[in-house]
């Protein structure tokens, strides 16, 4: 009797596995990703199926908000894109602009100003000061909002603005803020702050939501000031750990018409979570011109038809003639991006990639290091940042293009996360970012291929194993 029960269960299990494999192959246009999931399903009994149900399903083609709402938001916040004939942009820049616009209606916002922050203290001091001076509204969206000294300091400032009659709305990612107690967010709401988790994970919806993260870090104040970059609200950006390590990140303070694009992004996310309560974009007034910097806000997510930021990155790399400098906490590129970087280096472009020497994730560290030899063989220069956790997400191309924001150079950011990056068309910003890159090089160790090959066999084996499943990390 037990024998036949086991046989039936085994048959059912294999039917489930084969069904999952069929779905994986049909859903994933990327053969490497499909192969990784197939290996996991076939060689990790039970665990592979569970992992696929939680982390392998695709959301592409599903609508974040209704077409009616999206059209309404677009009409109110996105003016018609004008001709580029008299834009002053060169041919390569125009090609980048057109790609981003066709991917996600990213409008070219002209005549903006920006300030670059590379340390948490300066960035959060500036943010807190702008919050204190807010008169109309404060919209904040962060992947992680910690219940620590910094988190409570910002919470108290927001509560004070609510008492003054300022509208305050906060979005945080439920998975990203798992370590923050619910009581902290309950207190936030009790103080009058309209706050909500993105994709709230419940037991009933666990498999449908735990893999999708809103990784964006955006703040908008009075429709006049915006913040975007890689920093979360957490003490580790402003205080050293007991080991003396500090998180090094990049964040921007922007002013000008780009705020309209940031408002549109926030409105889309808010309308998705709160369809009964519309957040209107900046339809009453147009943001004043503040400088001479042209930029686009490109958002991406698992619901999009295209992998927006992957295509923007590939196009930028393909257009490079002089240099490509990349800073990222995790380096797990798609096969197309890896080939693009190798091709650029082999054609004489100065390609440099900076990653942290020690990451906050052992698994992602092994995965990142598995690509280093392939890059160095093609002439890519690899640097390991040593003072702390390098969390900056920046790519600098030639003399007039920079992109920075929330997206890491890895599969999760490109395919599973909701992300937001600025594409910046400016020689002056490019020069500033290059100076920052070379300042960080002073605190980094340049790797050589001969030294890298002498690593212990155990490390190479672990890296090779993790590499097999890198599309799933």
SSE arrangement:
Elements: H1 2-27, H2 31-43, H3 47-55, H4 67-77, H5 91-104, E1 109-117, H6 120-132, E2 137-142, H7 149-163, E3 167-173, H8 182-190, E4 194-198, H9 206-209, E5 213-214, E6 218-221, E7 225-229, E8 251-255, H10 258-273, E9 293-300, H11 308-319, E10 323-327, H12 335-346, E11 350-356, H13 362-369, H14 372-377, E12 381-385, E13 394-397, E14 401-405, H15 411-416, E15 417-425, H16 427-441, E16 444-446, H17 449-452, H18 457-468
Describe the structure.
The longest helix has 26 residues, at 2-27. The protein has a 16-stranded mixed β-sheet that branches. It is of the alpha/beta class and 473 residues long. β13 (394-397) and β14 form a beta hairpin. The chain contains 18 helices and 16 strands. It has helices at residues 2-27, 31-43, 47-55, 67-77, 91-104, 120-132, 149-163, 182-190, 206-209, 258-273, 308-319, 335-346, 362-369, 372-377, 411-416, 427-441, 449-452, 457-468, and strands at 109-117, 137-142, 167-173, 194-198, 213-214, 218-221, 225-229, 251-255, 293-300, 323-327, 350-356, 381-385, 394-397, 401-405, 417-425, 444-446. It is globular. The protein has 3 domains: 2-55; 67-83 and 111-291, 2-Layer Sandwich (Endonuclease, Chain A), CATH 3.30.870; 308-472, Endonuclease, Chain A (2-Layer Sandwich), CATH 3.30.870.10. α2 runs antiparallel to α3 (47-55), α4 (67-77) runs antiparallel to α10 and α5 runs antiparallel to α11 (308-319).
